[in-house]
Write a structure and sequence with these properties.
Layout lengths: L11 H20 L17 H26 L11 H27 L6 H25 L7 H28 L8
C-alpha cells in the first residue's frame, strides 16, 4: 500500500494480463487443430452461415464505434466532461458487442478454424484469436486497482483495434465485394 491509503501502482498487472491474453489467443488457434470439421456451424435463424456472420459482425462493428465515442468521452477527448451515464452505457455496449460476437467466433474459430488459403483470411483468423486474448487483457485492466493508469486505455484501445480489424477483414470486406448477404450463400 502506498502512504496515501491507495494501492501501489505496479507494472506486474499488465505483464500478467498480456501473458494470459497471449495464451488465450494461442490456445484458440491451437484448439482449432483439435477437431477440424467435427463442429457444425450455427445460423441462429438466418438463412445462411455467411448471412449470420456478416450481419452480426456488422452489428459488432457499429457497437465498436459507439464504444469508441464512449471511451473518448470518458477520457475527456470530446471537449466536455462525460455525464455519469456514459460509463455504465459504455460497459453495457461492450458486453453486448462481445455477446453478439460469440456466435460469429464460434463459427469462425471452431466450425471453420484457421484458414491459410489467402492472406486476408489468415489475417482474419489470427485477428479473431487475438480479439479474445485482448478481451482477457481488457478484463484485467478493468478489474485491477493497482495497475498503472495507462493500462486501461491501452487495453481498451488494443481490444477496439483488433475487434475492428477483424470486422473489416470479414463482414466489411465481404459486403464490399459481394453486397450484403441475402441468405443464398453457404
Amino acid at each position: 500500500m502506498a502512504l496515501t491509503g491507495t494501492p501501489a501502482r505496479t507494472s506486474r498487472v499488465p505483464v500478467v494480463a498480456f501473458v494470459l491474453g497471449a495464451a488465450v489467443a494461442v490456445l484458440l488457434g491451437v484448439n482449432d487443430r483439435r477437431h477440424p470439421g467435427s463442429v457444425s456451424p450455427v445460423k441462429l435463424g438466418f438463412t445462411s452461415v455467411i448471412q449470420m456472420k456478416t450481419w452480426l459482425a456488422l452489428v459488432v462493428g457499429a457497437l465498436l464505434l459507439v464504444q469508441l465515442v464512449g471511451g473518448l468521452w470518458m477520457y475527456g477527448r470530446l471537449g466536455r466532461a462525460a455525464p455519469a451515464w456514459v460509463g455504465p452505457a459504455h460497459r453495457a455496449v461492450g458486453i453486448v458487442a462481445v455477446l453478439v460476437s460469440l456466435p460469429v467466433a464460434y463459427d469462425c474459430l471452431l466450425a471453420f478454424g484457421i484458414q491459410t488459403y489467402e492472406f486476408r483470411v489468415l489475417l482474419h483468423s489470427l485477428l479473431g484469436c487475438a480479439v479474445y486474448g485482448a478481451l482477457v487483457v481488457k478484463v484485467f485492466a478493468v478489474r485491477s486497482h493497482s495497475a498503472p493508469s495507462w493500462f486501461l486505455p491501452v487495453a481498451g484501445g488494443l481490444l477496439f483495434t483488433l475487434f475492428l480489424a477483424a470486422v473489416l477483414t470479414s463482414a466489411v470486406w465481404y459486403s464490399a465485394q459481394y453486397g450484403f448477404p441475402t441468405g443464398n450463400q453457404y
